Amino acid sequence: EVGDRAESDVTIPAALYNEVVDEIDRDAERLKRVADRFSQIGSKPKLTEGSIEKIVEQTVDYFSHRLPRQSRKIEIQYTSQGEPVSVRFNPELLGWVLENLIKNAIDAADKDHGLVQVRVVGHSRNNSVSLSVRDNGRGVRPGMEKQIFRPGVSTRTRGWGLGLPLAQRIVTEYHRGRLELSWSEPGQGAEFLITLPGASSSS
Prior knowledge:
The chain is of the alpha+beta class. It has a single domain (14-202), classed as 2-Layer Sandwich (Heat Shock Protein 90). The protein contains 5 helices and 7 strands, in the order H-E-H-E-E-H-E-E-H-E-E-H. The protein has helices at residues 14-40, 53-66, 91-108, 163-175, 199-202, and strands at 48-50, 74-82, 87-89, 114-123, 128-135, 178-185, 189-197. It has a 5-stranded mixed sheet. It starts with 13 loop residues before the first helix and ends with a helix. Its EC number is 2.7.13.3.
């Protein structure tokens, strides 16, 4: 009859189907972790002892899988140096801090050939771990180095200015560490550095 349309089955390759299902599962798990993170802010979070490298690798992997979807050309690199140092940390909260720093770096990175570098360095001599996130973007405006950690101050046109202050609070109050702007050069980029004490020195 006129108006009838033939129905046809759409075949999805098994490999693509499995990839999509895995992606959905990862996003669902990530949403659960996000909810867990914010339920811990304001209360005393549970800290685990170990290496932060796994949570860093997972976070970098999460963003790396999504970078190809962006119209901009951005590369994210991850390196680990030094000897592993065990620290006391909350995976959900520290993961959120790292996500915030990487998001900011991606947003600030060079528009044509963006580069975000994430690096973990274990310092066995002074029993600490440093985690840095560097971009090759516009840098932080001179005079804004300390203000960016104040609530309500944002360098982006769309932003509440709460990410960095909250990230700094999580690092300093809950992990007894430091979060600072370690380097910035107008037109060349910026680097944020997290320093965490080793487990034996933070107990």
